[in-house]
Amino acid sequence: MNQPIVGYHLDEYQDWVADLACGHGQHVRHQPPMTSRPWVLTEEGRRAHLGTILNCKKCDGEG
Predict the structure, then answer these.
(1) Which whole-number Å values give the CA distances from 23 to 20, 36, 56, in the listed order?
(2) I want to staple 24 with a disulfide (CB 3.0 to 4.6 A). Which of 44, 48, 52, 58 is the partner?
(3) Does residue 63 sit within a domain?
């Protein structure tokens, strides 16, 4: 189910997790070359992606 990002927090390993409107979280790691999300490394970048829609696998029953 598509959900917008409403905030962020760091997990216990210091990886960024997007807080979704549904109440679930989803990791938004920057781990090149597998995943390129350099925007997650700065506060400005994270703020610019608030409202971005992510597919919540937990809402879909997959997580």
Answers:
(1) 6, 25, 10
(2) 58
(3) no
